[in-house]
């Protein structure tokens, strides 16, 4: 797929029609103040139900743009692929503190991300690198790391940043970054960890069967919503211990992000939770470094959570509060989203309780080179490259590739796999023997250390919310095998004429054989029809 | 699929850039005269190699538009879907006799065809009715009969029409329409016969795997390139007998159509052939009536060939000459097109002799209602309708439908199938029990009287020239079963709110359950996580 770069500057001149019965002159201009000095773009909602209610009333006055139809119709060939008009309007409706966030967020994209990123959604910003570049490095450089944001990017001065630890902890505290960095209080940890959005490869589910539109934020990801970095910070367990440990009954930690989140006409901060048992085994850290550098703004500066082996959505950016609670968070992102349904559940019968909550990521993989529909001239071997990952405390042990849609599998040589980590992907490559010509279906599957492997087809695991496309990744390749005589001859003929065989859909201006050859060959076949 | 009606008038202001080294002032205006009085748009090429050569030289001077990329890219949502710029340019390049044919042909479309036709290709005109209307009548009304033309539509006065019978016949003759209609010479025959383009359902092959662009004329047909009519005329066998029968060695009859055909820079009349053994059993007629009316211009007025059970391409329109020959015709449409390849054959190795020539049409079928991606609210039963056909002297005996992608099959009640004919399709309908919800794959297969049935998947029979998509026809349906409690409740709730459940991709503005219901249900499930 190729994309035109054609970006309308975010946040410019967003206009929103009022609903009937509302007049603009009736309104007092909404004003939701910044919460703290040194924090730009952060409104505290969770502590102020009245403010949430006021925002809800303001939002109810507008006729926001309808989510675009991008599942039953082909996706636009633009970059950004989707714009997020509705989300820009939400921010504009709530006045000056949020109005400029689409513009500011876009500036961070330009400053911090590689210029060749595929902008899956302009705002809230969601972007992934081009396929080739996803697997350029076993440790993803920061500018190439995918971004999956749920709101605007707040700008927080590191010196002004604090973290509240509250709820069912014995000694609630407010910590500064200096506190966290104080190695007399907390030993430093550093881990290589992959983060993966559960929407990775969603486009495959959309192409087969459309699902929940979810106001657009269910972005049509390709295979690039995964990346691996060395994250440095402190173990969250140590921080909780520093607060005297948990009170009886506490089973989960709730993380609060400074970004503003909209859902069905209401407004929130970004809030999710993970179970304490995950923290207890040091699989959750508070990180301020990504690959040896301070976190980029777009990735959560100054401090974010990184939860190992879990869906990326739990690794909250711009975290400002941690709340110990009894049960999983009732915040909408935790209770109403990132749910996995059986294929008979959909708009007609879905309930949040009927899906299970996606925390651990399952075993998955993807072919990143070649790409779908590529037409490849080769000599009997095609090189395939990709990634393989398993979350939930597992790691990829074996990768297998098939050139015939999943009948015969070839194992990737272990020497052609990148290093093993408990919490990270492995890159792989293989020179696959390919004799056949024409359209072939290549696919990949990974086996993890618990002997889990992937569902066979997209339809084996399609689900209404379009999460976790972990079925064998399949691409169609048009194989042109130069080691076959007829093909070699035609390629030579084309070379002499200075012509290309691709794209295969463009017809040749010359005949495919001489009349003499045709008659000879048909005669050898006994003519077109039998004689008697 | 929906289409915008947006038609640029054919034949207006076609301009063609000259190749380098050619100047417009160098040229004498090409002029290829009409061949006969009372015939407009007919140039005789086959008798005049010099004229063919001159046309070839003229065509070589131009840089014609490249065929559009419509296989590796999504099809335009316009009607006509494709325009045929290159073919309009070919006609314009050869001067006044052909220049206006795109415009004239389009006038016949407007006059003779139903206004709701889907114009698959503007010029040469190729069109099919909307899916529902394909199966509105067991005998297709003339305005709804699909059209698959290979060139412009010649206008021939019936009184000026003649047919030359030549080649390996004992007494070559020139016959008029009055001769054919003289029942003292030829008994009248009338048969109900389906004609099917071998490109029917080609779009399914294109969607899975692109193939031969073939300068565009390989139009992206849906399921509507099939129709059934009562054709009346005379048996071709009687006409050949009237010419004294065939000489020794004659095995095939070559049909010449008055339309001009372009192929790889050369120019021809439309010429194909069928074997004598097909004629001998009265399976080829010369017809001047279609459903009791004179042939429409667009369907071959005044006289066309109708070959029973064969690919439509052999039923030559505007036939002006029949030539008895020893072997199948070497004309390009017969020897270089309508070939069926094995999936490993493609642009890199295809030869004409390596494909087999499509004459008999195999058993095939299609679901015409509902349509792909439809979202259907039902009470446990969904009505499916469609057509089933088998060529080659066979007829549909049984139709089976599956609601689960081809695991469980339901037989269509024979009382729900239209009448049986030796040479025609049967329409069918079935009330299929559907319990499941969400995305389901419906498919159909037909069994003919020789126990032939259809390949399972498109990929089972994909072929480079994209002909004969006869695999089980599959559509994806989103099932919303109102006889299930949860679904009924949600539909009632939506009805009370005056809201629609479709399109399913548009999110609801309200929560899917109350917080109380959520907590209750999660508790019944033992919480999100185990307790110990």
TrEMBL record, chains A, B:
Cofactors, names only: Mo-molybdopterin
Domain Oxidoreductase molybdopterin-binding: 150-331
Biased composition (Basic and acidic residues): 1-10, 19-30
Domain of life from the UniProt record: Eukaryota
A Pfam match: Mo-co_dimer
Keyword DNA-binding: no
Domain Moybdenum cofactor oxidoreductase dimerisation: 357-478
Region named Disordered: 1-30
Keywords: Metal-binding, Molybdenum, Oxidoreductase
Protein name: Sulfite oxidase
Lineage: Eukaryota, Fungi, Dikarya, Ascomycota, Pezizomycotina
């Amino acid at each position: 797929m190729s994309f035109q770069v054609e970006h309308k500057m975010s946040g410019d001149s967003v206009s929103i029609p009022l609903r009937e019965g509302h007049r603009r002159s009736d309104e007092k201009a909404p004003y939701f103040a910044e919460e703290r000095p040194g924090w730009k773009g952060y409104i505290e909602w969770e502590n102020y139900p009245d403010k949430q209610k006021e925002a809800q009333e303001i939002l109810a006055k507008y006729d926001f743009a309808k989510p675009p139809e991008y599942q039953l119709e082909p996706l636009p060939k633009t970059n950004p692929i989707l714009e997020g008009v509705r989300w820009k309007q939400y921010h504009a409706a709530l006045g000056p503190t949020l109005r400029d966030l689409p513009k500011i967020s876009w500036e961070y994209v330009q400053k911090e991300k590689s210029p060749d990123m595929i902008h899956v959604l302009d705002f809230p910003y969601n972007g992934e690198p081009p396929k080739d570049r996803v697997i350029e490095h076993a440790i993803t450089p920061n500018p190439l790391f995918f971004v999956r944001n749920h709101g605007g990017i707040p700008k927080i001065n590191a010196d002004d940043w604090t973290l509240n630890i509250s709820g069912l902890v014995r000694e609630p505290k407010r910590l500064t970054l200096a506190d966290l960095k104080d190695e007399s209080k907390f030993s430093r940890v550093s881990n290589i960890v992959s983060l993966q959005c559960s929407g990775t490869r969603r486009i495959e589910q959309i192409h087969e069967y459309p699902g929940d539109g979810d106001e657009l934020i269910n972005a049509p990801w390709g295979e690039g919503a995964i990346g691996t970095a060395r994250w440095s910070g402190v173990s969250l367990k140590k921080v909780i211990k520093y607060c005297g440990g948990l009170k009886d009954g506490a089973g989960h930690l709730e993380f609060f992000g400074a970004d503003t989140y909209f859902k069905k006409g209401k407004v929130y901060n970004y809030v999710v939770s993970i179970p304490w048992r995950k923290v207890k085994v040091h699989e959750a850290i508070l990180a301020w470094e990504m690959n040896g550098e301070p976190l980029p703004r777009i990735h959560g500066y100054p401090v974010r959570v990184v939860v190992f082996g879990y869906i990326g959505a739990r690794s909250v950016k711009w975290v400002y509060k941690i709340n110990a609670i009894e049960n999983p968070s009732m915040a909408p992102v935790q209770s109403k989203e990132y749910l996995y349904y059986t294929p008979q559940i959909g708009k007609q019968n879905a309930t949040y309780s009927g899906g299970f909550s996606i925390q651990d990521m399952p075993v998955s993989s993807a072919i990143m080179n070649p790409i779908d529909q590529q037409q490849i001239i080769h000599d009997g071997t095609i090189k395939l490259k990709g990634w393989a990952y398993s979350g939930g405390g597992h790691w990829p042990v074996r990768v297998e590739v098939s050139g015939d849609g999943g009948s015969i599998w070839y194992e990737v040589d272990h020497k052609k796999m990148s290093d093993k980590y408990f919490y990270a992907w492995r890159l792989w490559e293989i020179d696959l023997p390919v004799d056949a010509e024409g359209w072939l279906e290549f696919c990949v599957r990974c086996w993890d250390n618990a002997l889990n492997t992937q569902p066979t087809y997209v339809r084996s695991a399609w689900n209404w919310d379009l999460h976790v496309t972990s079925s064998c990744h399949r691409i169609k390749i048009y194989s042109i095998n130069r080691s076959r005589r007829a093909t070699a001859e035609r390629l030579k003929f084309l070379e002499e004429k200075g012509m290309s065989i691709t794209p295969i859909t463009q017809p040749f201006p010359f005949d495919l054989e001489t009349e003499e050859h045709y008659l000879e060959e048909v005669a050898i076949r006994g003519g077109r029809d039998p004689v008697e």
